[in-house]
Amino acid sequence: MDNALIETTGTFIGWQDAPLENIIHAPEDGMVYVTQKIPGFIPVALYKSLVKMALTIIPETELIHLQRTLEWISEDSHGDSKFKFDALCLYQGKVESSLREPGISALIVKRKEQIDKENPYLMFRLTYGSFMFQVPIPLSDQDLTLGFSQIPYIPTLFDLKYGFNRMQLGKMNLRISETVRMEMTVSFKDLDGTGTLEYIDDNE
């Protein structure tokens, strides 16, 4: 299977360069599914990039609790880290493009004193367009564990506006320090019933 080139401006999605073998058309549902290869990535490096974003907005008074976190993201090698995690949990969410929210938001949530310390001391959530990413900030001296396999979900403005059953949620463990390659299937729906998604046979 070749890679499917999918380009988007946020309001327009172009998939005309996708090889036919990557496309599945379901006219009865008004849907087209395009499978795209995702460039190789290192999961723990992705996690570190989100933590670095979080550190830019964390109050300076909290950085005293994150000295090991700063040491971890500054390591020269992902594979030779002195910190051994059982899990680095990422929540990822997405919504239909027709319901996407404009703008980008970044949020830090701090554990209340009366809350069970089994929960992360600090969590970070990033939302933009149709997507949401949430991670705990690891290695705080206020936590009882190095990493978390389960974390509380932080509701988004989308949840409050449309309800809690509209976002598709997934969970990933990003502790892997080796390159991972995968595929992603993007779906396109004929929302207004005009038949915009119409199969065209090139042989005719």
What does this structure look like?
The protein has helices at 43-55, 67-73, 157-162; strands at residues 7-8, 13-14, 23-26, 31-41, 89-94, 101-110, 122-129, 131-136, 168-173, 180-189. 13% of the residues lie in helices and 32% in strands. Strand 1 and strand 2 (13-14) form a beta hairpin. The strands form 3 sheets. The protein has a 5-stranded antiparallel beta sheet, with helices on one face. The protein has a 3-stranded antiparallel beta sheet with strand order 3-4-10. The longest helix is centred in the first third of the chain and has 13 residues, at 43-55. It contains 3 helices and 10 strands. The protein is α+β, with helices and mostly antiparallel strands and 204 residues long. The protein is globular. It folds into 2 domains: 1-41 and 179-204, no CATH class; 43-178, no CATH class.
Write a compact overview of the structure shown.
With 204 residues, the chain is α+β, with helices and mostly antiparallel strands.
Largest sheet: 5 strands, antiparallel
> Whole-Å distance between the termini?
24 Å
Morphology: globular
Count the DSSP helices.
3
Tell me the domain tally: 2
Could you tell me the mean pLDDT? 81
- Fraction in beta strands: 25-35%
Element string (H = helix, E = strand): EEEEHHEEEEHEE
Could you name the ranges where pLDDT drops below 50 across 5 or more consecutive residues? 197-204
Q: How many beta strands in the DSSP annotation?
A: 10
Task: Name the strands of the widest sheet in spatial order.
Answer: 6-7-8-5-9
Structural class: alpha+beta
Oligomer: single chain
* Estimated radius of gyration: 20 Å
- Please give the share of residues in helix: 10-25%
